[in-house]
Structure formats: structure tokens, C-alpha cells
Specification:
four-stranded antiparallel β-sheet, Rieske domain-containing protein, 2Fe-2S, 23% helix, 2 domains, Rieske_Fe-S_prot_C, transmembrane, elongated, Rieske Iron-sulfur Protein, alpha+beta
Length: 138
């Protein structure tokens, strides 16, 4: 093999390797991975049952949205904590056993149904269940 041919092969191989590496890096950057497209909590989330005693509620982030989890004698309920009226965060009122919006007094039952007030629709509800002293949402 002549020296010039050998150098041509080396340069061609180097250019090819650079092009493949650049293409791979560009595609890896542009093509989202499964972990980067998964929303926080999309696989479900769990809370220790002891963190929310019967009659109480807690606000958590589920799928990146504020969520209110209520634990009653009837079970556990997970609802969007965002009022459909104007987007205020709702609160649990254990004495009235209702969820209420502090902004315009919209009221909801444990399943998110509107009981009164200006809300145009129910609160979004999520599947919630108790499994082995854990509240599983989603």
C-alpha cells in the first residue's frame, strides 16, 4: 500500500467516525428518552397512612399538580387541589366534611362534585387506595 493511499484511508476513517459520532450525539439530544418524558409521579405515588390520620387531609404534588388527599372513615380520596372556577387552591374542612375554595366559596364533596358556589365543574379526581399502611395514588 502506498503511503498516500494509507493517509487517505486514515483521513476517510476519521471523517466517518466524526460524522457518526456527531449524528449520534445530535439524535440523542433531539430524541427524548423515556425517563425525560415521564412526568413526576406519573407511575403513582404513595404516602404513609400515618401521615394523614382519619379526618385529616394533606396537599401533595401528583403529576406536577397540587393534589389534596383526604382520609375519612369512608376511605381515602385524591382530588385536584385547583378550583375549576379561578384556580385557587381548595382546603379540606373536617367539621363540614367538605372541600371548599377560600376565594369564592365553591364547595365540593369527597368525590369532587360541586355542592355549591360558582365552580363550573367538579374537581378532577384520581384513584386512591390503601395498600399495606400506604396510600397509593394513581
Amino acid at each position: 500500500m502506498r503511503r498516500r493511499t494509507f493517509l487517505d484511508y486514515c483521513i476517510g476513517g476519521g471523517v466517518t467516525a466524526w460524522a457518526v459520532l456527531t449524528a449520534y450525539t445530535g439524535l440523542a439530544f433531539l430524541w427524548p428518552t423515556k425517563s425525560s418524558t415521564t412526568e413526576e409521579g406519573s407511575e403513582g405515588t404513595t404516602i404513609a397512612l400515618s401521615e394523614i390520620p382519619v379526618g385529616n387531609a394533606s396537599k401533595i404534588s401528583y403529576k406536577g399538580k397540587p393534589t389534596i388527599v383526604v382520609h375519612t372513615q369512608e376511605g381515602v380520596f385524591a382530588l385536584s387541589a385547583i378550583c375549576p372556577h379561578l384556580g385557587c387552591l381548595v382546603n379540606w374542612h373536617p367539621d363540614e366534611k367538605q372541600i371548599a375554595c377560600p376565594c369564592h366559596a365553591a364547595k365540593f364533596d369527597l368525590r369532587g362534585n360541586v355542592l355549591g358556589g360558582p365552580s363550573p365543574g367538579p374537581l378532577e379526581s384520581y384513584k386512591a387506595e390503601i395498600i399495606n399502611d400506604q396510600i397509593k395514588i394513581g
